[in-house]
Amino acid sequence: MTFLAALPDSGARLDTEFVELLTATAESRAKAILDGYAEGLIHLRDGGEARLAARFLRTLVSVYVYEGSAYHHCEALLGPAAELADTLAEEQYATGVWEHGADGNPPDTAFSIADLNLTYHLLDEDAHEPTVELRATIERILRKAGPALATGGVHTANHRWLVCAALARIHARWPDPAYPQRIDAWLAEGIDQLPGGEYSERSPIYSAAVTNPALLVLARHYGRTDFYTNVRDNLTAGLYVIEPNGEVETVHSRRQDQTGIRHLPEFWLQYREMALRDGDGRFAAVASLLQERGTGQIFGETPLGDRLAQVLDQPELAARLPEAADLPDDFEHHDDSCRLVRVRRGTHTASVFGGTDFPELHAISSGLSTNPTFFKMRKGAAILDSLRLAPRFFALGPFRAEGLERTDDGWRLHAEVRGAFHHPLPPERRRPDGDYALTDDSRFWSAMDFPHRPKEYRTLRTEVLVREVGDGAWDIDFALSGDGCASPLALELCFRPGGTLTGDGLEPVPGSPDTHQLVSGEATYTVGADRITFGPGNGKGGRQPAVVDPGERYAWMRGSLTPDGVRVLITGRSPLTYRLTLR
Q: What is the pTM assigned to this prediction?
């Protein structure tokens, strides 16, 4: 089988540089796997590593079947590949799933099945005699997994589409009426895409690694070509969260990437596929940019060499891209469905975020957007990763906006929080035995029957106005007021490590490494030729030493909200009117 030979027949020209890059990195990846096998490191050491073994097997098979690889039909790959497949078969439960941290886990099993579907296809197309037994082992695994995926449940929103994609490829090869019945039941729930293009989890990593790949499989192998629209809309949304250095904004995510640094290359082949399908020059530009960056030290979550298998599975991806178009680099983009504003002026970017789930749900939990960062900016290599406001008000935690609104000259964020002092229960609610309901005060629980107690409230109102005042320059106005309650507060600026912080008004905060308080004047954070100047300091008002209160929901379990980086605190006390300038 010559995997890319049909490309010229379609009228498309082979992208030789792209194929050579994938081949070289896949060969390097395969060598690392073989070296690990020789040293006894490639095993399923315990249940739950099926995903790693399936991915290793996929990579080895890709260089084995590809005629352009130095490992083409190399006998040395057969032993490790067989051992990986045999171990996967042995570790597979009688129910068809693998452990993956639970007593049989259908959705995590689907990740491995997605790889094995692709691997089996490559081996079957290659039809090389020495792989007959290997193919038979993988076929047994796939056939055994099908009923489990057709009856098992899931955990998260993206798992639904992953399971459907895995089942669709099994059904295409070994049809079973139970498979489309289950696929259609999941798909009948509707794809969870928001109007702005993000999916309900608002997570770039899960869009790139799970949802988009699954929808593309369903478009190709289950006839749901309408899903190309979903992927196209998601990739279009991605154009506005790309940073100049290849990172992608994640502050709005509801998953674990909401506080991390993520890189766009997980989307690489999706932008390539849709650029080729639509002739979209913007998508082609992103794909070219990511290919260029892919030869560097960082290339997303998936090793670059693992991607050859997908291109052999979809030879059309090896065609030359359409002519690249200019990417948007001068815009103000408001995604109201995430309450995220993105501003870009060349190498200067900023994010304004007012869309956490906390004001509506009052919960800190996996699957919720809770990151209190409401502003970020960068000028080249000088990066302000986070700006937060933390009042010490009834231990209710940092400011999290209840809304994001456009004003005549900027963006308004606002919130109102209140804490209660509770009075004695009315006579009809009193109990001689003192046995009262365990209830929630909104920040802690106690056997106090809080809902039936008279209360007096203290209220803290916060207004933040974010205004762009020049090329890469911002004014942020803060107004905090309340019911005669003076609360210490701290503005927390957190810069990406690697730069130099200077300013005469900076004082180290005792007991807090890499943390200073800006007492007076301005300070500057410099990385190479890039710098961000900010201030002014606001004296030593508020609590001393300066602290950032994470709120009782974190503090009672000794949790932390402290971001990694170089921190500067500007303190004060409500009521307060203050303007932070960033230049």
A: 0.94
